[in-house]
Amino acid sequence: MRSEPLVGDLSEKEILARISERTGRAENALVGPGDDAAVLRVTGSLIATTDTLIEGPDFRSEWSDGYSLGWKAAAVNLSDVAAMGGRPTALLVALAMPNDTPVSRVERIADGLREACERLAPGCAVVGGDLTQSSVLTLAVTALGDTGGRAPVLRSGARPGDTVAIAGEMGVAARGLGILFERFDGTAPDLSRLTPAERHAVERQLRPVPPLGLGVAAAEAGASAMMDVSDGLVLDATRLAEASAVTLDLDSGALGPDPQGALGGGEDHALLATFAGEPPEGFRPIGRVLAPGAARVLVDGAPFDGRGGWDPYRDWAGPSGS
Amino acid sequence: MRSEPLVGDLSEKEILARISERTGRAENALVGPGDDAAVLRVTGSLIATTDTLIEGPDFRSEWSDGYSLGWKAAAVNLSDVAAMGGRPTALLVALAMPNDTPVSRVERIADGLREACERLAPGCAVVGGDLTQSSVLTLAVTALGDTGGRAPVLRSGARPGDTVAIAGEMGVAARGLGILFERFDGTAPDLSRLTPAERHAVERQLRPVPPLGLGVAAAEAGASAMMDVSDGLVLDATRLAEASAVTLDLDSGALGPDPQGALGGGEDHALLATFAGEPPEGFRPIGRVLAPGAARVLVDGAPFDGRGGWDPYRDWAGPSGS
């Protein structure tokens, strides 16, 4: 006898009912789930972004329970709204899953989506979605947000002389991923075997806590450019520098206790921004914007040729090189 | 030697470049693809909906080339915006695919997305998206639209005495699917072996042409309720009747030359609406709204118990029964 119902045992309507009783209500929703589409009040302009989590390339089921999956799918999308200087208002969730997925896993995904919204972006909630059958568990989330009447903060506005600043953790989620690969390959992570710092890193990898509210704060403080760091600080800084046609010079001494981890680490979804004036509270200066040079990103004034180019033995003797 | 590049041969940036040169520009986009998120101008309230096409349950690659897939993914989502009485303004596309997908297939998906927007919803285009690797080709599309200051048309507003009306084809796409299953199971459809009517049906199944502009027309004419018919006329009419707490009585004589096909057929994405007054041009009266009775949907005044309940031998002797 099976101990719990599977997705294939229930009708679409029954599954939707279990999801929608868990996802809460978006403050700006005029029409929520249940009609052909949701309808939302928008103040200013609309921000819209989509990002997908797929079993295999993006997560492993032995590491990510349903709650973590729902949380992460929400967090990474909400972060892209914050990175435009906006306030997230609603999520749409396209969930595709095998028929042998336990219904409890779907319910936990819904719980994770709701609690990430409540914690990271109060007022935001799931307003619609789609359920499909697939052999691969797939969460495609669209996040919507609001500029609140301010101009959106683009990647392209950094100007020479601006301060480069960051909000949020750097390198922690990447360290957590390393721990999962090294110590829990193929098994559920036993957090009791980890030090507090290791446990924190694993938790941040599975359930990132990006500094979402600081996106609006940066926009209000006149950020000239902003983006969220999802693929690694150097790689994303290179993108911002390219979009702005400038060079960014990062100060390794400002990158915390593990500068190498910070430069390579991505999935914390820190906010990288540039400011002509003083960065607002919550942002830490980590460098300055220069006129465009041969390299898009420098570390301590020396060329840094991207994620793969970081050689700790060659580059890590400090500003003087070796 | 391979004759053409595969997705796995190119970087994400190269694939994105090939897609974005094909997807056109949305009229209301303030910021298009390339930043953390898109930014859109909205007039009135925002309409948002998502729907996913997955290889296997939703399409077969031997029947649907990339162009048809892109077209259909756009059309079915745009139709949900129209069904709220809105004008579609933008699409976000999360595309997940195996590394051995030919790049030309991705390019044709982009072509299909663009041309469906141009033909069905001028001014609308892809404004953002996401690329991921998956073993199953998956297109999760979010469509955004605008109420233009009018109230959205919900499923719940039908009142006794209203006229039930429909715009668009009925049963044609379902007939096309039947032809594909019967005559081209496991092979590419050879349209030259089909009569013109059969070819039309197959084309409509693969590339539906919903009457999108009539969504706004219905809202302007004061439609009391509306939805798009995606799962079958009777099933969807039952949903509208439930949401409105009424009974719908459909007139089989108004359903065209194949009433049985019309009652069961879905994927044409016809617009089903109710009107207190005269339906606007493009809508055909097919019945009336009654006070709620034991059955949610009647056909010619007799109970009809849903999609599976239609028995042509028992029910199809006409209004008098048999």
Mean pLDDT over the full residue set of chain A: 92
Alpha-beta content class of chain A: alpha+beta
The helical percent of chain A reads 25-40%
**How many angstroms separate the termini of chain A?**
66 Å
Low-confidence stretches of chain A: 308-322
Determine the most extensive contact between two protein chains.
Answer: A-B, 57 and 57 residues
Number of helices, where a helix is a run of at least 4 consecutive DSSP H or I residues of chain A: 9
Shape of chain A: globular
**Number of E strands of chain A:** 13
Radius of gyration of chain A: 21 Å
Query: Mind telling me the CATH class of the largest domain in chain A?
Result: Alpha Beta
Q: Any guess at the CATH architecture of the largest domain in chain A?
A: Alpha-Beta Complex
SSE layout:
The structure is a homodimer of 322-residue chains.
Chain A: H1 12-20, E1 29-31, E2 38-40, E3 46-54, H2 66-82, E4 87-97, H3 103-120, E5 125-133, E6 138-146, E7 163-167, H4 172-183, H5 196-206, H6 213-220, E8 225-229, H7 233-244, E9 247-250, H8 259-264, E10 270-275, E11 284-290, E12 297-299, E13 302-303, H9 312-315
Parallel strand pairs in A: 4-5, 9-12
Antiparallel strand pairs in A: 1-2, 3-6, 4-6, 7-10, 7-11, 8-10, 9-11, 12-13
